[in-house]
Amino acid sequence: MSYRGAKSGVVNDLVLLDGSGEQEIVEALAARHRADEIYTYIGEVLLVVNPYRLISGLYGSSKIRSYVSKKLYERPPHVYGIAEMAYRSMMLNTSNECVIITGESGAGKTEASKTVMEYVAAMASKSKQVQHIKDELLQTNPLLEAFGNAKTRRNDNSSRFGKYFAINFLYGDPSGGSISTYLLEKTRVTHQQEGERNFHIFYQLLSDSRRRGDFKLSGSPGDYNFFGDPGAAKVRSIDDARDFSETTRAMDFIGMGGDEQNAIFAILAAILHLGNVEFESRGRDASDIVNARAVSEAASLLGVNERDLSTALTHRTVKSGTESVRTSLSAEKAAFARDSLAKSLYGRLFDHIVARCNETIHTEQFSTCIGVLDIYGFEILGVNGFEQLCINYTNEKLHALFIELTLKGEQAEYKRENISWVPVEFFDNTPIVELVDRRGGLFSLIDEQSIFPQATDATLFQKFQSNIRARELSVPRGAAPGEFEIRHYAGTVLYNTEGMLEANKDTLFPDLVLVVYHTARNPIAKDLFADHPAVDAGRKTNKRPPTTCMQYKKSVADLMDTLRSNNQHYIRCIKPNESKRAGMFEGDMVITQVRYLGIAENLIVRRAGYAFRMTYDEFAAKFKCAVAGTDRWEPNTRKATEDILRKGGVKHYELGRTKVFIKDAKDLLRIEDARRNFLETAAEYLPEDDGLIGADRVIAFNAKAVRVPLLLVVGSKGLYLYDPDGRQTEHHAAFSEVDSLAFNEKEGWIAALSTYPGKHQEDPEVQVTYLMENIHISEVRNWVEVLSNVGVDLPLTASSSYPMDAVDGPAYKANLKLVGSGALNLPAIRNGGGAPAGGCCVIA
Predict the structure, then answer these.
(1) Taking Cα atoms as reference points, which of 663, 809, 782 lies closest to residue 70?
(2) Helix (H) and strand (E) counts for the chain?
(3) Among 2, 8, 96, 105, the one annotated catalytic
(4) To the nearest whole number, what is the mean pLDDT of the chain?
(5) Active-site residue, selected from the candidate residues 2, 12, 102, 110
(6) CATH number of 14-187+361-382+557-608: 3.40.850.10, 3.40.50.300, 3.40.50.1110, 3.40.50.1820?
(7) pLDDT digits (tens, 9 = 90+) for 252-295
């Protein structure tokens, strides 16, 4: 693999950039984006710039095969490269891995997570049982997208929840998995901003004429109040009818039968009918339902008594000591009760969907796992409330973990390798994390205020001001009531306390819970509230029901523990423009995200050490061909590495226990460019109908049966040996005539055992051994693997010796003379020999 993009000419790894400033990073990403090179590395971190279109040839089974068993630096940057690294680490080390995907809405996180899962699932064996498990895992994606995703102004398929998907493995094959979800945006059920949609599943349901009839629905989103902007219902990139078919197929596949599906769709329809229930005031503190038909339809679909539901929507039972008093609700409070029921029904239904997925994919038989985290990025909206505080807190926690583990990993490696290390200062966002989750912090104060019946969002704001230091939380000049700022590591966010207490309490009046739980004939609707505190009226406990803050803080802490216990791999997704247009790259917008994601900081940390590191075995095998004068076998790869560095003019490096560390990126590029030129030259020698797999400098017989330095070129059709100056072809062995490859790793040779038709009747077959010395077997293994992917299977076996005629010149010549006429015809060198005419090649 070249260290530069084939089209852009920009380095594939930003560590190799001359500079490390934000502007230089953005310019490099822009150049690569223009060339459809949407993936870029920073060391082992992958950056993805959303192209907003499908790039031909970038995905699929053949592309997946090209990354199997490849090191990160051996192939161009890709999600498949990160997935392969995670899978191979799991297999080699029997370790648990995780891929952490972050970025703002519309940056491509969901697609990246699906691509990781696609690659990992492709590693499964072909047995029917394993294939069925793989399909079950993949079928959860369309189902969770239908119920958890929505069209926003920034993204047509925005995930409105966080997800950690753990894929379990047994001996390298997927055996099951588990899904954990975080903070579903339930408020979207009842309210959406202009230009946005409700969750996809509602529109999918309306697209099915048969289902509409079953659940008394019209086909027009404008008929339902819970669709805030009916004009946003039609989205060019979304086919609701097609997606609904995919959703129901997924439900079938994971074991949701027809009755269960109908019960789920009935709840969805009931939510839409509930949204059309309106109230009018009767006096100061009472209300009546205006449109009884909407209540009737909702009650019928939930399987509850219409009168009971109407009463629960307009009244509330309040306990005073041992007595219960029913009080009327004003029109405003009745509307609040209606919305609370709708949000609670949907939130608990979503949990039911996740639980059913987990039941299907659960397994007790697994040895390792790969987790994929797809979670909200930083959100800075026009109005930022409780949900944004939770989301941004999570990102602060993830950023703190990223910096901690990245820096710790660097230090640990330098210590293991006995490399000197000067600690680098970096932004410590621990105070921001603690501002939110410490005792007496924001979450604690929100919980404290949620206890008091008389507390309001205004009193919460006062608590913030009196308990939080000004340098952590400030009130800007001219701020509206309830507004305050937090200086996150990604930037300053203006929050408003309006709605925070209610979002934390997530209030649902017990009357509504009991109506659904005790009387619902819809089996799923009844089960949704089985764990609600209001159900067990006889239970005497002083324990408060958990608030959203309490639950979310614990779930994030559990997530961090899971991530810490695994080996982490990072994918940072970047949104290039607000218009979701292909080919548009807005530098100002990207530089903001570069700052949000801590990319420059990551680059500085990586740069503070060494721009490049590689084991001696890998380095010697990869770069031996890049410098002249490496014609003698050196079994000590540390010495071989040092020899290559010296001959290549590299000065700024250190040798560790098992790895070489190169400080200056330009030194690496000098050697890499030399290797690229060597391979491009080798490709020019091949016949027109063959393509390059690899090449190296070896010792072998020339046409005169004298062992001399030669150029070995491996094509997709055969092995070619050329003189080093490219004047003539010395030998050629078509793969159709190569029986096997023997090798000796310690002595550094391979022997191609070939069989040809003989010239004489008494010798119908003649065996010729092409012995090539001064070669690292790791390179040969790579070639054999690539050849296998293109349909050429070469047995590769270890051997302690080779046939004597392989080094006996006269015997070798005698064997060649026995080969039948025409069997050893040598292909002509392209361009007539000598220096290549130019052009380029694809380096496998």
Answers:
(1) 782
(2) 27, 27
(3) 105
(4) 88
(5) 110
(6) 3.40.850.10
(7) 999 999 999 999 999 999 999 999 999 999 988 899 999 999 99
